[in-house]
Design a protein that fits this description.
Oligomer: heterodimer
Distance between the termini of chain B: 25 Å
Strand content of chain A: under 5%
Helix content of chain B: over 70%
Number of strands of chain B: 4
Strand order of the largest sheet of chain A: 1-2
Order of helices and strands of chain A: HHEEHHHHHHHHHHHHHHHHHH
Helix content of chain A: over 70%
Largest sheet of chain B: 2 strands, antiparallel
């Protein structure tokens, strides 16, 4: 197939953002919203088509596009396999939801907001498509610009602090990765990752390079102790910003571990496994405890994200089929659930302009539809069987038990804590007595909010009962990843 | 003989036209506009002449003047950037009553000086070119002679620069004494590591050159002169002399000092690291935007020098790459300053930019693109400049230099972000006059478009820069 489907997927949002930039409308920004909604839905359909036409029985990269880019040493190379396709579909799925959500929540400078979201979508899809380290870095870093503006321009009261913290933390982590990428180029003579997989990086360099990559991924993931930017960024970002941040930006790091750290540096990955286990366990237990104490809903969900990402890193570094598959599943599931939870917070925030838990209570009496949806997502987040949240955690724990009893036991404690803070949050927000008289005047979810939340709820439950479509997609690729990893370790 | 003059054609054309328009300027009353437009025309014609000139290497006048792809590239870069700088600053010049006909003529004279600098293959010719350029720059710095700050900056620049020229001359004479020649090629043959006196001379020459490109620790004049001189002059200072200075530095490493590279490298590494750190840290506390750009330019010179410090062709290429993109970014950044006009006054404080994104969305967006590019965030042009430099630095396994460079990138990102924060996140304070000037908006548009679309085909500049070192 000669049609450059991946480039189209990447540059379609960018192109439409250019049209929005040129469009002129005084009233309500209707044309901007329609253009962006239309183009993001087109991107979504295209990504579904890509998923449909992907051959899942092979672990090779497919739909490869290769163009000479910087003279003869760096190529603009794109391609997808069973792992990355799901993240692309997730990105393309979440973006239209974000655009829908901004109809209700963004009142100021809507046009610029939509441009920022679409440009961000381009960069995010680019990250998951790129098969060249430099191209990957380019898209990985470029995402900082629109996200910085989304937090800073449309954020809450402490937006400046949060935006700076987000930007500088991520940049500091990433520049070391850039240095590592250049060193890899001088070691192997290429930045094309399929070639690097073949060439294999000398063992003595692996540890340092792995740490340089970790510095970037740990910040992005975020792992304890560099997670502190996340709660700030989440709290201050507008709803759509939080959704993208939680649903997609955090997944880049997990994807990075799978695509780069493990296949390129198998020895270092094995060597540093205890480090990753410790950091993940600390993240799971510590941030769950911190989440218990929050009085701000967004902050609570942000800390729960850190804990959930702790499971992901734990699962990836078990190097077992269950662990890695569970991690990928957990990332997709967290992408859906956390997006939905932030949207839920956004719904009540648009009405009462407060994120404090104490403002609410007894919502079930006046907002029944909303309360039902909130409950679905809260239960999914704590891992109720029948939702996607359960499967991810279950597989990760299964994988971890094969490697380390201690780590698995401690991670299980996190499951209990997760149930505690989520249920307590639900109790205080949805149930209980109505303390605030303003709640009686609230309207239930409107049409666009229902569409967003119901779609997410449908997929959370659907894939919870029938995960096969997802599992089959990445099954062969994960097997291949583990085989290559074992092979590399055995040839020492 | 006539063939030889062909090689010198751009310089001959430039000097003859300078004298012609000087005469015109004296005899025609209120001649600023005519002279200004004629100078632009001269710049364009000179570009055309150079483009017509073949690129293969030719040396004339006892091998003291060299014309090759390297010097032609730098000449064209100098001409194009001066053309944009001059035209975008015209409004500013007339608004501030700087519209004396000497203004464009002196700029042309300094360009002539730079031509000889980049083409010199001999210490004497190099020094003459440098002095012609410096003398013109002294006058330019104090061109607003009734303004205390401008005259002060001119005097400051003159005193310090004269001192550095003295050191440079001293170095040149030492070099002549130890090698017995002023010709670069002959010096290169004579020099070796045992020649201790020549190393001494090299240090003096390096001090002089570092002063001209305002590298730390010879940067002290930069912030004061940048702040004191009129913005249009600062714009010129920040862009054009840097190109010539860097070309000269590379040239010295390529030919005369190629045998004592190791000694020379150590010093450049130090200067580069010091410039990067000072440029990043000192800029954080600045309130005046011109002062901030002065420190930012010090930092950028540090990155370009990191490329030079590798002592390899790939490093020189990356430095040329860097300076070319630096020129695009800074021309755009200064052009934005010409739009900050309020009641006939040009604003220079960073706090005046507060919230301009609401009233002037396009200006704010241009600032955004240029500042992120200066900070080196992909996918903008500034990222590729840094990427190339770090590629060549890491090729030579100079890990300390690379790590310090990367960390200062993060520190300097902080103050660029601070300006963006003021533009986008803060409340509106001022709304500026509506300046409708195609030259300014055209310059900003070209610079932003180049920076945004650079990632589509980075090989373009890469190919040109690579071709400079083919022989």
């Amino acid at each position: 197939m000669n049609f450059p489907i991946l480039s189209t997927l990447i540059f379609l949002p960018l192109l439409s953002s250019f049209f929005i930039f040129l469009s002129k409308d005084k009233k309500n920004n209707f044309s901007s919203i329609y253009i962006s909604l239309f183009s993001s839905l087109a991107t979504f359909l295209l990504s579904l088509f890509l998923w449909y036409s992907l051959d899942v029985n092979t672990a090779d990269f497919q739909f490869i596009e290769e163009k000479s880019w910087i003279n003869n040493f760096i190529k603009f190379k794109l391609g997808v396999d069973g792992i990355s396709i799901l993240f692309i579909v997730l990105t393309a799925f979440i973006t239209p939801i974000c655009i829908l959500s901004c109809i209700n929540s963004v009142k100021d400078r809507v046009k610029e907001f939509l441009i920022a979201i679409l440009v961000l979508e381009t960069f995010m899809i680019g990250v998951f498509c790129s098969l060249d380290l430099v191209i990957f870095y380019l898209f990985f870093e470029a995402g900082l610009i629109p996200m910085f503006l989304i937090i800073g321009v449309w954020g809450g009261s402490r937006r400046v602090y949060s935006a700076f913290k987000f930007f500088l933390f991520t940049l500091l982590g990433s520049v070391l990765m850039l240095a590592a990428i250049i060193v890899i180029y001088w070691l192997t003579g290429t930045t094309d990752i399929t070639q690097i997989y073949e060439i294999k990086i000398p063992k003595e360099y692996q540890n340092l390079l792995w740490l340089a990559f970790l510095s970037s991924f740990a910040v992005k993931m975020p792992m304890w102790p560099v997670h502190t930017w996340l709660p700030d960024a989440h709290v201050e970002a507008p709803t759509a910003g939080s959704v993208i941040l939680a649903a997609i930006l955090l997944k880049m790091a997990g994807y990075g571990f799978l695509r780069f750290s493990i296949p390129m540096f198998p020895f270092a990955s094995e060597f540093f496994t205890p480090l990753i286990y410790s950091l993940s366990i600390i993240a799971i237990i510590y941030t769950s405890l911190v989440a218990l104490m929050q009085d701000d809903m967004k902050k609570l969900i942000a800390y729960s994200s850190v804990a959930h990402m702790g499971y992901v890193t734990l699962g990836i570094f078990t190097f077992t089929k269950q662990g890695i598959e569970g991690s990928i599943f957990q990332m997709i599931s967290h992408g859906l659930i956390s997006a939905a939870l932030f949207l839920c917070v956004g719904v009540v925030y648009d009405r009462l302009h407060s994120r404090l838990i104490s403002t609410y209570g007894g919502l079930v009496n006046y907002l029944p539809k909303y309360s039902f949806l909130f409950l679905v997502f809260a239960l999914a987040a704590l891992g109720l069987p029948g939702t996607t949240g359960f499967l991810g955690e279950f597989l990760i724990l299964t994988g971890t038990f094969q490697k380390s009893y201690l780590a698995a036991m401690l991670a299980t404690v996190g499951v209990v804590l997760g149930a505690a803070y989520m249920l307590w949050l639900t109790k205080r927000v949805i149930f209980g007595v109505v303390n605030n008289s303003e709640i009686k005047t609230l309207k239930d979810v409107n049409k666009s909010e229902t569409i967003m939340l119901a779609t997410l709820a449908f997929f959370v439950i659907f894939f919870g009962f029938y995960p096969a479509p997802l599992m089959e997609t990445f099954n062969v690729s994960v097997n291949n990843l583990i085989e290559n990893y074992q092979l590399a370790l055995n040839t020492r | 003989m006539i063939n030889n003059l062909n090689i010198l054609l751009p310089e001959i054309f430039l000097s003859l036209s300078i004298f012609t328009i000087l005469m015109l300027g004296v005899f025609i009353k209120k001649s600023f506009n005519i002279i200004f437009n004629l100078s632009s025309l001269i710049l364009i014609l000179t570009i055309a002449i150079i483009l017509n000139n073949p690129n293969h290497e030719e040396k004339i006048f006892l091998d003291s003047f060299i014309r090759d792809a390297f010097s032609n590239y730098f000449k064209i870069l100098i001409l194009i950037s001066s053309l944009f700088v001059l035209n975008s600053s015209k409004n500013f010049i007339t608004d501030n009553k700087l519209d004396k006909f000497e203004y464009p003529i002196i700029i042309l004279l300094s360009i002539l000086g730079m031509f000889f600098m980049v083409s010199a293959n001999d210490l004497i010719l190099f020094y003459l070119g440098l002095e012609l350029q410096s003398l013109s720059l002294y006058i330019l710095a104090s061109i607003d002679r009734d303004n205390l700050r401008s005259s002060e900056s001119g005097i400051k620049y003159f005193v310090l620069s004269a001192l550095s020229s003295g050191l440079l001359l001293y170095g040149c004479s030492l070099l002549y004494g130890f090698t017995g020649s002023t010709n670069f090629d002959l010096i290169a043959d004579q020099l070796n590591k045992e020649n201790f006196g020549a190393v001494f001379a090299m240090v003096f020459i390096l001090v002089g050159l570092a002063f001209k490109i305002s590298a730390v620790p010879f940067h002290m004049w930069t912030p004061d002169v940048y702040e004191g001189a009129p913005t249009s002059i600062t714009n010129y200072f920040a862009v054009v002399p840097k190109i010539a200075g860097l070309a000269l530095l590379i040239k010295f490493m390529l030919i005369p000092f190629s045998n004592i590279l190791l000694e020379w490298q150590t010093i450049i590494i130090f200067i580069s690291i010091a410039s990067m750190i000072l440029g990043a840290v000192a800029a954080i506390v600045q309130k005046n935007i011109k002062r901030l750009l002065a420190y930012s330019s010090i930092g950028h010179v540090g990155y370009a020098l990191a490329g030079v410090a590798t002592g390899a062709i790939s490093g020189y290429e990356s430095a040329i790459f860097y300076i070319s993109i630096y020129v695009i970014m800074n021309t755009g950044a200064f052009s934005c300053l010409y739009l900050l006009k309020k009641d006939g006054q040009y604003k220079e404080n960073i706090s005046d930019l507060s919230g301009i994104s609401k009233k002037h969305p396009l200006l704010a967006m241009s600032f955004l693109i240029i500042l992120f590019s200066l900070a080196g965030i992909p996918p903008l042009g500034g990222f590729f400049a840094k990427f190339y430099v770090f590629m060549s630095v890491l090729e030579k396994e100079m890990y300390t230099l690379a790590i310090i460079g990367l960390l200062t990138t993060v520190i300097s990102a902080f103050y660029y972000l601070k300006i963006i924060k003021i533009i986008y996140f803060d409340e509106k304070k001022l709304s500026f006059d509506h300046v409708k000037n195609p030259a300014i908006s055209g310059t900003i548009l070209i610079s932003c478009t180049l920076l945004i679309t650079f990632f589509l085909y980075p090989s373009f500049l890469d190919n040109i820069v690579n071709s400079l070192f083919v022989n």
